[in-house]
Amino acid sequence: MGLMIDAAVIGCGRMGAFTSDAVRRFAPPCWLPLAHAEAIRNHPALRLAALADTQADALERAAAHYGVAHTYLDPRRMIDDVRPSLAGIATRTIGRADILAHAVAAGTRALHVEKPLCNSMRELGALEALFAPEDVFITYGTIRRLLAPYRAAIEAVQSGRWGDLLEVQVNLGRGALYWTHPHSVDLLLYAAGGRAVESVSARLSGVEHGSHALEVESDPVVESASVWFTGGVEGRITRSPGSDLVLSCTGGQIAVEADGRTVTSYAPEGDDPYSVRRTLGSALTPDAPGGTLAPVSQLVACLQGDAAALTANAALKQDILLGQRILFAMVQSHAQAGRAVVPSEVDPGWSVLARSGTRFA
Prior knowledge:
Elements: E1 5-10, H1 21-26, H2 36-41, E2 46-52, H3 56-66, E3 71-72, H4 75-82, E4 86-89, H5 96-105, E5 110-113, H6 121-131, E6 137-140, H7 148-158, E7 165-171, H8 181-192, E8 197-205, E9 215-218, E10 221-229, E11 234-238, E12 244-249, E13 252-257, E14 262-269, E15 272-279, H9 293-303, H10 307-335, E16 351-356, E17 359-360
Parallel strand pairs: 1-2, 1-4, 2-3, 4-5, 5-6, 7-11, 9-16
Antiparallel strand pairs: 7-12, 8-10, 10-11, 12-13, 13-14, 14-15, 16-17
Helix pairs in contact: 5-6, 6-10, 8-10, 9-10
């Protein structure tokens, strides 16, 4: 084994350090380990060197659980003192862009960042520049694209057996723009397979403005949204219940259901014109790693110079940035009565604080 890589986690709550009991009980096995600290501990090349959180009780609990001696109430001081090569950023969105900038400036080159990415188009522009260097590696909390069932579904579509891709539908229930739909948008981009985004349209509810017309203080519900890609492929976000990805092709459908619990095909067989549903059994066997260990493993491979990981991460960084821009395009589309918005034409003044009650996403 080579030298251990120092890693750290900023934010010691549900995603940073302690996976919820409900996820452990009900989620398919491919989702675990989910907490950043747990994933880092599960990677043989990483050492969890430090933890940071602005809440002393959360920090003390995580430090005791993981046996970490170096703890900080100031994330920036932790970055400056420890200089981790890899960091998990599991803070609230407000202030996250500044932490990312500080970490990269201090020499941290691999970052796993919770969603959403930032609160404003101004921050997004700064992050586009921050992510540009080839030796800065970023993964994101929208991890479905790295989990075995979703990869198997996309590979099935790309095989051509079910024809050409027509439509991608994501059903995550009636969710909020920032809390839920970074996941939806990332699935659309992943399924689109590199097709360029032509336009975005959306209708939202619960939009509450802040100090000016381009500031949204609430985390609005997405009632419907469409993302149109080149080649006539449409991505749709619905209010349908479930945790499903449905890929419709000219010759049938592939679906990832219940967050990866099952992967099915739905297509005609033989001379019968009516479709038959089949389980794609091989997709249910995780080929490791799962959960947050999957993106963390990609980051480690990038730090070690693995060519495939470097290529994959370069493409992933672009989707992360584009996904955040699409969220702002949805807000602008709603403000313009559902008009289709080209992502490159989003007004640079938009910001979303994403408050739900007294808390922010």
